[in-house]
Amino acid sequence: MSVSELKEKLEQIEREALDEVKQAATSAGLEELRVNYLGQKGALTVVLRGLGLLSKDERPAVGELANRVKERIASELAARKEAIYRSELASKLSGQKIDVTLPGVGHQLGHIHPLTLVSEQIVQIFFGMGFSLAEGPEVETEYYNFDALNTPEHHPARDSQDTFYTDVGRSVLLRSQTSTVQVRVMEKRKPPLRIISPGRVYRNEEINARKFPLFHQAEGLLIDRDVTFGQLKGTLNEFIRLFFGRPLKTRFRPDFFPFTEPSAELDSQCPFCLGEGCRTCGHRGWLELLGCGMVDPNVLEAVGIDPEEWSGFAFGMGIDRLAMLKYGVNDIRHFFSSDLRFLETF
Ligand code: DAH
Known about the structure:
Layout: H1 3-23, H2 27-38, H3 43-50, H4 59-95, H5 114-127, E1 132-133, E2 139-141, H6 142-145, E3 165-166, E4 169-174, H7 180-188, E5 193-202, E6 214-224, H8 229-244, E7 250-257, E8 260-269, E9 286-295, H9 297-302, E10 311-318, H10 319-327, H11 340-343
Parallel strand pairs: 1-5
Antiparallel strand pairs: 2-4, 3-4, 5-6, 6-10, 7-8, 8-9, 9-10
Helix pairs in contact: 1-4, 2-4, 5-10
3,4-dihydroxyphenylalanine binds at residues 177, 179, 219, 257, 260, 263, 291-293, 314-316.
């Protein structure tokens, strides 16, 4: 090939190469072009090898042109490579977008047990009436559970079919009522007194929808001068109004408890049907809510409080029962099942 033919060939290679490089769309396509032009068997390389056939005088000019062509192609390849890399990266990134609106992996928060909730509601209502919290042990003595509460020797509650005794013997038992706290408080503190005491109690009973060997009571005690049954009624009526969120009719039916005289069972009008009769009240229109009465003088005397100077009233309510009534729970066992489907409804 003559010098001018070679030069023309080089310029043609340059035009074609630059043109194709501009149009390359992928880095793979670009790599192919590099091999085709600059590779060992590439078009440019083949021409450069032909330089050897030229005379010494002719060689420099053609060699110079060939190098310039090589450089331009190489630099165009590099520029195009950079551009393709950027656009490939951009489309990769837009295809793999992070969805920041996806919900995070949260931790499930626990919440208060319904019995704790109702216990808290009861206590808060009595706090509002000037009562304060008192607590007593669940493992008790026969003295606090029965004797000091004026319970006769052969009272059926003392039977081991009703009360859990311990291996220690009859003198140590699981308390069957929170009334024990009345005695413990009066032994330690001087009247006037107003306490509310929620807690666990135990009875040796067969399990069914309404009974469980472990349940909860809240005990109230007020000791002062000249306390009347009217004050007991007013206090409990107010409690019922606040607990169910509306004023309800109540009735006090005579009953018997060894530690109160007179004693009564308090019924309230059913807060759901207002006396019409519904499933919650068993179509009676009334709910039996709690036991109460005026503190028996024998109980005061046993703890060294003069019944001539001091009098008082007491009451005890089942927390589980109140929770069942308030929230329409039809089986006491739900409270102890640890079934999250039940617990999460509160
Ligand atoms: N302790 C009684 C029970 O478990 C309930 C009770 C009745 C408590 C009358 C009292 C009360 O304080 O005065 O059945």
